[in-house]
Structure formats: structure tokens, C-alpha cells
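Handoff note, outgoing to incoming analyst
You'll be picking up this chain. Sequence as last confirmed:
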Amino acid sequence: MEAGKIEILLEGVSFEETKRLREVIHTLLANGSFNVKNGRVIMHYDNDSNLMKVDHEFVKYYRKKS
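Most recent structure output, in case you need it:
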């Protein structure tokens, strides 16, 4: 598999904030958070804006009433 590349230009953002955002994106990618179908991803942060927990909630079965 080839490596992918995403470039984002963040104007007016400090190096520290850019590093924090990069870590969040890597964590979400590593845990399949961008591949959720029929569900949602909830990200929990502490008071210092550090990502502390990622919840994935899925709908396992749903049938519309006729």
C-alpha cells in the first residue's frame, strides 16, 4: 500500500498547537475514527485541550417501521 499525504496550512497557529492537532489527527486515524459508518465518534478532552478518550458508537441494527 502506498503512503498517503495530507497537507494543511494553518495560518496564525503556533508550533505547539500544530503539534497537538497533528497528534489528535494521528490518534483518530490509528483508531479508525474516520471510517465510521452508521455511528458517531465522540472525542473527550481535558482542561488543557489534550485528547483523553475517543468513543465510537455504532448502530448495530436498525429497521424502519413500514
